[in-house]
Amino acid sequence: MSTVLVLNGPNLGRLGTREPDVYGSQTLDDLGRQLQEDAPELRIDLRQTDAEAELIGWLHDAADSGAPVILNAGAWTHYSYALRDAVSLVTSAGGTVIEVHISNPHAREEFRHTSVITAVSTGVIAGFGFESYRLALAYIRRNGR
After folding, report:
1. Is 80 annotated to bind ligand?
2. Domain residues for 103?
3. Which of 62, 101, 122, 135 lies most in the core, judged by the most C-beta atoms within 10 Å?
4. What's the subunit arrangement here (predicted)?
C-alpha cells in the first residue's frame, strides 16, 4: 500500500466557508496537509467532485488497484444506489472503504439518518470533524489496507 484515496463528494470543495458551524472553518487543503503529516510514508490522494459519475469512476479505479479509500460521499450518501454499487465493487474485491462524515448525520435532519453505502462499507466514522478522516487513516495504516 502506497496510496490512500481520500474521496469527497458534492459541496465539500466549499469547506471553510460552507456552514462553518456544522463543518468547521478548515478547508480540504488543510485536511490534505493534516493527513499527509499523519502518514508521511503514504501518498494521500485527496480528491473532491460535484459529479457523481466521476466519483464512481474513482471507486472503480480503487476496485482495480486495491487502493484503500476514505469516502465522504456528502449528500450522495443518502440516496445514490449507483455509488453504493461502486463501493460494493471495492469491498467485495477485498478492498477497504471507510465511510466518513464531518458532522454526526444522526444528530441532524432525518433524511441524513439513512446511508445507502454503510452496509457495503468496511466501517463508518462520523461526528468528529476532520478527526473522522484521521481515525480512518489510522485504521488503514494499522491494517495495511
Report:
1. no
2. 1-141
3. 62
4. Homododecamer.
